[in-house]
Design goal:
The protein has a six-stranded mixed β-sheet. A two-stranded antiparallel sheet has the order 4-5. Helices cover about 30% and strands about 30% of the residues. By secondary structure, the chain is α/β, with parallel strands linked by helices. The two termini are about 25 Å apart. A hairpin with a 4-residue loop joins strand 2 and strand 3. The protein contains four helices and eight strands, in the order H-E-E-E-H-E-E-H-E-E-E-H.
Length: about 170
């Protein structure tokens, strides 16, 4: 089993619950979202796919770049933004990333072998390799919504990636 199988199963099972589901989205923070899901409320849910226990545990060691909070209100140079490196899950909890919600998606074999943090949701791929079961709903991390410009940029990126891949495959025949 690979992450593409889980991505496809999630899309087929849950596409009606979201306005947009985009796979493999890279963010400026250094994150890659396996699935960026735009809820009808305008909030972003990241669905992180894990296919092994080691993969799941490694997620808690990931780091991201976040804007460093200013130490004073004296902004003589507001265009100079400092970036600090933080643990991804610490940044999620503090609401420093765009994700309003965070969930894991795993194969059913892993269900009883992991424990998800209190803020994270959990989805499981069904026994037959299709259908997604919600085990735990994620908690709202913050209420800031992403801009339409951000969504357009990411949608364009995935569109270009799709057509580049499609063109390469069709010319290889």
């Amino acid at each position: 089993m690979n992450s593409t199988v889980l991505q496809n199963a999630f899309w087929k099972s849950r596409c009606q619950n979201y306005d947009i589901i985009l796979p493999n989205i890279h963010l400026n923070s250094g994150c890659e979202l396996d699935l960026l899901c735009l809820k009808k409320s305008g909030y972003i849910e990241e669905v992180e796919i894990k296919i092994s226990i080691a993969d799941f545990k490694a997620d808690f060691n990931k780091t991201v770049g976040v804007k460093k909070r200013p130490e004073t209100d004296n902004h003589r140079f507001p265009y100079h933004v400092k970036i600090e490196t933080r643990g991804k899950h610490d940044a999620l909890i503090d609401g420093q990333l765009i994700q309003n919600y965070f969930s894991f998606l795993i194969p059913h074999e892993m269900r009883d072998k992991i424990e998800v943090p209190g803020y994270a949701g959990l989805y499981i791929l069904g026994h037959a390799g299709w259908g997604i079961e919600t085990i735990k709903r994620p908690k709202l991390l913050h209420r800031e919504k992403v801009s339409d410009a951000f969504l357009l940029k990411k949608t364009k990126a995935i569109t270009w990636r799709y057509w580049r891949k499609s063109t390469v495959l069709s010319t290889a025949r």
